[in-house]
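User: Design a sequence. Structure:
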C-alpha cells in the first residue's frame, strides 16, 4: 500500500519523503535526548551514592563522638558525686571535732 502512495504522484511522493526525513530527524533527536538523560541519571545516581556514603561516615563519626561525650559526662558526674560525698564527710568530721573540742 505504501508503494501505491509513492507511485501515485511525484508531489505526494516528495511530500512523503520529506515527512519521513522529518520523522527520522525527530527520532534521532529523541534518541540523543534519551541518551543524554540516561547519562545524567547515571551521574546523579553515582552522586547520590557518594553523598549517601559521606552521610553514613558522618553519622558514624557523630555517633562515636556522642558516645565519648556521654562517657565523659558520666565520669564528670561521678567525680562530682565523689567530691560532694568527700566534702560532706569532711564537714561531718569537722563538726565532730568541734563538738569534741567544746567538751
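Assistant: Done.
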Amino acid at each position: 500500500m505504501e508503494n501505491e502512495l509513492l507511485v501515485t504522484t511525484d508531489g505526494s511522493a516528495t511530500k512523503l519523503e520529506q515527512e519521513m526525513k522529518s520523522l527520522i530527524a525527530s527520532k534521532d533527536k529523541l534518541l540523543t535526548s534519551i541518551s543524554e538523560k540516561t547519562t545524567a541519571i547515571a551521574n546523579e545516581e553515582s552522586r547520590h551514592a557518594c553523598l549517601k556514603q559521606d552521610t553514613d561516615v558522618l553519622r558514624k563519626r557523630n555517633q562515636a563522638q556522642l558516645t565519648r561525650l556521654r562517657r565523659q559526662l558520666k565520669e564528670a558526674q561521678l567525680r562530682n558525686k565523689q567530691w560532694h560525698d568527700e566534702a560532706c564527710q569532711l564537714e561531718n568530721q569537722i563538726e565532730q571535732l568541734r563538738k569534741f573540742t567544746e567538751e
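Residues 1-7 have pLDDT under 50 and may be disordered. The CA atoms of residues 56 and 62 lie 10 Å apart.
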